[in-house]
Amino acid sequence: MLDKTKSNLCTLPDVAADVKAKVAGTLAWVGMSEIEMPISVHADVDIPPSVARVRAEVSLDHESKRGIHMSRLYLACDKVFSHQKIDFASLSQLTNDFLQSHSDLSKNALIEVDFDALIRRQALISDNSGWRSYPVSLLVVRKENKIKHIELDFSVTYSSTCPCSAALARSLIQENFSQSFDKENLDFDKILEWIGSEEGINATPHSQRSTAHIRTFLKADTKQIPLKQYIDLVEESLQTAVQAAVKRVDEQEFARINGKNFLYCEDAARRIKHVLCQQKDIEGFWLRVHHHESLHPHDATAEASSD
User: Fold this and answer.
1) Residue 9 lies in a domain
2) In 138-264, where does DSSP find H-type helix?
3) Dist CA 259 CA 201 (whole Å)
4) Which of 306, 299, 276, 302 has the alpha carbon at shortest distance from 288?
5) What CATH number has the domain bearing residue 227?
6) Is residue 102 classed as helix, strand or coil in its secondary structure?
7) Taking a C-beta distance cutoff of 8 angstroms, is the pair 185, 225 a contact?
8) Is the pTM value of this prediction over 0.70?
């Protein structure tokens, strides 16, 4: 008995392949974005499976061809994401698969993968731990059958305490102290009790949740995703990364660390730039920090990049 499905496929029109473009010309990138795919990652840390949004594109180098084969890009992605752990090696191979399926149309291919990476984080003091979510983007670009660009983007969230506000708070505390005590009759126990009271510490500096966005350009032969390596590097440079599981001892330690790390947005950007400049495994970087001000309705921002 004739398979009607196969029979119909033989006769279905293919406008993209059979009809020439009304206006001829090449296009840098054509494809799909926001493709929903499952993702399991081969990184330097265990990450639970998640959901990814994928961009898959090729160049359209044949001037008269009307379009590319979108379904071939999707099916190639499905084959890899559904059955393999994703790293830069598998993504690099996937761009090669894109070109093989478009050998008569395209010379260049790219794939970009966006997902949230859940990483287990230890509490500052207590024995507890909890999950932190990091937005991550992976990008691989192949041109003329060579990998030209590998990119790892991620964001970290941290606390920033304003140095100016801290100085102003200390000034108010000094003034309050001078009004509360007679320098000729200072009682140690009373001062100690006063320092621990709301009456004594009458001003606190403002701080805010802040975000650092980092883009690293990796070497073309990079395979495993060095995610924890670079997240740890940035968080350690800032010292004040936000926490997951927090008991009172952890909160107190967080307050102590913030008190030792007052940060303007310029300070944060310079710290990150300094540590990234020392990394021999990356070919370049770009970063931007946002301090989501609690004093103002706008953000304080700073940006830097490799030379």
Assistant:
1) no
2) 163-180, 188-195, 227-238, 248-260
3) 14
4) 302
5) 3.10.270.10
6) coil
7) no
8) yes
Q: CA 272 to CA 288: how far, in whole Å?
A: 10
Q: Report strand pairing: 282-292 vs 299-305.
A: antiparallel
Residue 249's contacts (CB-CB under 8 Å, 6 or more residues apart) are 124, 125, 126
The phi and psi torsions of 139 (rounded to 5 degrees) equal -140, 130
Q: Which domain holds residue 238?
A: 24-162+206-305
Mean residue pLDDT across the chain = 93
Note the pLDDT of residue 1: 44
Give the three-state DSSP class for 206. coil
State how far the Cα of 73 lies from the Cα of 156, in Å rounded to an integer. 32
Do residues 175 and 30 both lie within one domain? no
In terms of Cβ atoms closer than 10 Å to its own Cβ (0-12, 13-18, 19+), residue 4 is exposed
> How many domains, the chain?
2
Compute the CA torsion angle 229, 232, 236, 237 (nearest 10 deg). 60
Q: Is the pLDDT of residue 293 over 60?
A: yes
Domain match, 48 and 182 both: no
Q: How far apart are CA 248 and CA 71, in angstroms?
A: 54
Both 265 and 237 in a single domain? yes
Tell me if 15 is assigned to some domain: no
